[in-house]
Amino acid sequence: MASKTTIVETAYAKINLGLQIIGLREDGYHEVSLIMQSVGLTDEITLQNGDNGLELTCDLPGLSCGADNLVCQAATLVAAEAGRKPDLRIRLHKNIFVGAGLAGGSTDAAAVLRGLNKLWDLHLDPDIMKSLAARLGSDVPFCLEGGTALATGRGEIIDHLKDLPTAHVVLARPKGLSISTGWAYKNFRSGRVINHPKIWAIVDRLRFGARALVPYMANELETVTIPAYPLIAQIKAAMVGAGAYFAMMSGSGPTVFALAADKEQAEAAAAALRDFDVDIAVTTTVGRRQG
Predict the structure, then answer these.
(1) Is residue 48 situated within a structural domain?
(2) Of 108, 126, 160, which one is at a domain's C-terminal end?
(3) Is residue 226 assigned to a domain?
């Protein structure tokens, strides 16, 4: 939906099909190799021209609508690039779990970049869009287009891959549990990793579908987060026990995703969590954004 004064953008959540930590960089970040994948749990961002500065409203109680929100930072950044004031009214409808390892803030910021590029008829070069995205956070460049991608560097160098064939996904996030990405990386020790992902094997086998990737998928940050929060391992076990063919933590957690053969199996895996205090979404993988 678009007009001269309003743009509505859909922002897709992200999971990691593989997360490998290669080492610590000179800039203090970790060098990583990731397979990122969009899923159909979404936020909606409505952008309208205003006349009295930047105003952000959100339907999720407790979520900051101030300058610390990446939505506001993205709007301010695009306005500076365009040489204009950020006179905007932005409405954020949240469905993506907050602080959950699903890139919720990053995908909202990417949606603002896309939306303002349209609303203000900026026609920004794709390389400029990617540069702005990288300034906002490591996941934001991927979220501009989404789909399936290999991410390297600190996660901001994106190589888009052919879309993974549609897979059924269950997302489960323990309520009240928020894990700092910085904490997870700071406490990572390579010597604790037994199950390393085989990133290039995943890339080579994407066309065969998600089930073919299972022998090669792993998240090295589980070695940090699961010992501290055993509930994550319990959720994984419950979903696999109910028929999902794979389960893994996404990013630094605490969200766990499970892969299922069909919608019925996905719903069975979700139902197996009825005794856990979790937010749940049953969805599918999503391909790269077109246009």
Answers:
(1) yes
(2) 160
(3) yes
Among residues 131, 160, 189, the one where a domain terminates is 160
- One-letter amino acid for residue 215 of the chain: P
Per the structure, how many domains does the chain have? 2
Domain assignment of residue 149, yes or no: yes
Per-residue pLDDT of the chain (291 residues; tens, 9 = 90+): 334 689 999 999 999 999 999 877 777 678 899 999 999 999 999 999 988 899 999 998 888 888 899 999 999 999 999 999 999 999 999 999 988 889 999 999 999 999 999 999 999 999 999 999 999 998 999 999 999 999 998 888 899 999 999 999 999 999 989 888 889 989 989 889 898 999 999 999 999 999 999 999 999 999 999 999 999 999 999 999 999 999 999 998 899 999 999 999 999 999 999 999 999 999 999 999 976
Burial class of residue 207 (count of CB atoms within 10 Å of its CB; 0-12, 13-18, 19+): exposed
CA dist., res. 42 & res. 52, Å (int): 29
CATH code of residue 228? 3.30.70.890
Q: Which residues are catalytic?
A: 14, 139
Shared domain check, 147 and 198: no
For residue 229, give its domain range: 168-286
With a CB cutoff of 8 Å and minimum separation 6, the contacts of 3 are none
Residue 257 and residue 101 in contact, taking contact as beta carbons nearer than 8 Å:
no
As a whole number of angstroms, the distance between CA 28 and CA 156 comes to 15
